[in-house]
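ARCHIVE CARD
Drawer: 12
Card no.: 0347
Subject: one protein chain, sequence and derived structure
Cross-reference: see card 0346
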Amino acid sequence: MVLLCIPETARQIPSGRFRHSKETWGPRLAPDVMKTRRAASASPSDHPRAGESRETEMAIPPAYADLGKSARDIFNKGYGFGLVKLDVKTKSVNGVEFKTSGSSNMDTSKVIGNLETKYKWDEYGLTFTEKWNTDNTLGTEITVEDQITKGLKLTFDTTFSPNTGKKSGKVKTAYKCEHVNVGCDVDFDFAGPSISAAGVLGYEGWLAGYQMTFDTAKSRMKHNNFAVGYKTRDFQLHTNVNDGAEFGGSIYQKVSDKLETAVNLAWMAGSNSTRFGIAAKYQLDSYASISAKVNNSSLVGVGYTQTLRPGVKLTLSALVDGKCINSGGHKLGLGLELEA
């Protein structure tokens, strides 16, 4: 007689095959190996496509005012034609931020100055801002963010001019979440408030926005603007129509880590007035960059920015009229930024 010994961990099933437990048959796989196998067996749709990330899919679209901002920054930042400008930023021990700026116009010799203080109470999502300028205008701004609901920002803005006695007040609301960025502002005036609203929808890089302003005192629409764009990490396209009469568009391209380019185009309906410009910014190294731009009026602008030391930045700029090179009229600019 032959006795067949079967382990207690093995159980016979109707098919005649033996089913075994993990503890008896074979070594247990390490957790990292199991994760690797699961990742390899996942379908391609579970992974982002090349050049794509989860952050891109979940991105919040910009506000309407920020559509095409990357191209505008290439045209505007790094220049200060006809101005001598000084900007100072600092922060106290208790968290109060101070920002002071002053500029002198070389043509008119007019000096303009601004002072701003800001304090953030992070525990309650509050920001208090006080402003003053050389026109003797005082401003106070209180902002509440992400307190009522995540993504909601409320701002109460008031200004007062002691010289003229003029007062103004504005209530701003903004809400942003996945695929949506909307806002509504109410500007209070003695004649009647004006209401401004804007919204941007975004999906897979495509953007569509609308902006309007309604004057309740005159019961008419003051602004009626529409914009469409496409945005990726290195490329942005923006087109807009303002009041059905002004058409514009811009293209931003980040060619490499050091080179950024932009193209701007605008024209008015019913006229031959067309504006066209090309701009570029090149990062020479981690401390210096050079900018250049030219438009269809033959105005050529050049700017050079140098970080002298951490917190100290110098900007030199020049504007040359290509049509009147020998007759003068060119402008120079000097800017200094201090931050501590």
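Annotation on reverse: The chain has one domain: 64-339. The CA atoms of residues 258 and 285 lie 8 Å apart.
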